[in-house]
Amino acid sequence: MKALIILSGGLDSTTLLYDIVSRGYEVTAISFDYNQKHSREVYYAIETCLMLKVPHRVYNLEVLNSLAPSSLTRCEIEVPNGHYSASNMKSTVVPNRNMVLIALAASYAISKGINTILYGAHSGDHAIYPDCRPEFLEAMKSVLKLCDYTSIELDAPYLNLTKGDILRIGLRLGVDYSKTWTCYNGRELACGKCGSCVERLEAFEQNNAKDPLRYEN
């Protein structure tokens, strides 16, 4: 069983990588550096793949930074603090990011004879990220069966799970969460205040576990 995983280097996709490796898949990982503020996640993706001996490619996608204004891509737009339920979190949406990443991953998968692509969308993403919703996944599944002579399968195994659920899986699998990055700010330490940090810290609390990352506060 061959699979290509879109690996950001964050908690969700890293857990998914450990998960599918444990299930016996022949896994290849692909990451994209679009000059995001939190580009440290890409370095953790590289470290994790080296540790797990998973073939891994990183592609420069800086054009996405220019095309898709967001608080994750523009220095002049501040990353908001708070919970994902707040309306101001919509500034963290990188317009159409997942469609772009999935399309590029499909080209790579076809060239390598891989017919399954996985990505780490989960239920906590649904409220503000349109490209993480079940409707988007189903539409993209249909497109990828038609985009080439080779039919590509697309799946997001954690689509109906919370980050707490995903962390529970990862703790059981022994995921090294010190080699993941979640914070949307590009500083030396995780801020602990942006929506992504808040959700991550809540997940560790729900699982009575300690986050190995260092935080500013």
Short description:
Helices cover 37% and strands 11% of the residues. The protein is built from 7 helices and 5 strands. The model has no long low-confidence stretch (mean pLDDT 90).
User: Percentage of helical residues?
Assistant: 25-40%
State the major sheet: 5 strands, parallel
* N-end to C-end Cα span: 44 Å
CATH H-level name... which superfamily? Answer: HUPs
Structural class: alpha/beta
Q: How many distinct beta strands?
A: 5
CATH architecture level-2 label: 3-Layer(aba) Sandwich
Q: How would you sum up the global shape?
A: globular
Largest sheet strand order: 3-2-1-4-5
The Rg value, from CA coordinates, equals 16 Å
Number of domains: 1
Under CATH, the topology is which? Rossmann fold
Strand content: 5-15%
Q: Would you identify the regions where 5 or more consecutive residues have pLDDT less than 50?
A: none
CATH class: Alpha Beta
Figure out the total of helices: 7
Rounded mean pLDDT is 90
Q: Give the SSE string.
A: EHEHEHHEHEHH
Q: What secondary-structure arrangement, pairings included, does this model have?
A:
Layout: E1 2-6, H1 11-22, E2 26-33, H2 40-52, E3 56-60, H3 62-67, H4 97-112, E4 116-118, H5 134-144, E5 153-155, H6 163-173, H7 195-206
Helix pairs in contact: 1-6, 6-7
Give a verbal description of the structure.
With 217 residues, the protein is α/β, with parallel strands linked by helices. The model has no long low-confidence stretch (mean pLDDT 90). Strands 3-2-1-4-5 form a five-stranded parallel sheet, sandwiched between helices. The chain has one domain (2-206): HUPs (Rossmann fold). The protein is globular, with a radius of gyration of 16 Å. The protein has helices at residues 11-22, 40-52, 62-67, 97-112, 134-144, 163-173, 195-206, and strands spanning 2-6, 26-33, 56-60, 116-118, 153-155.
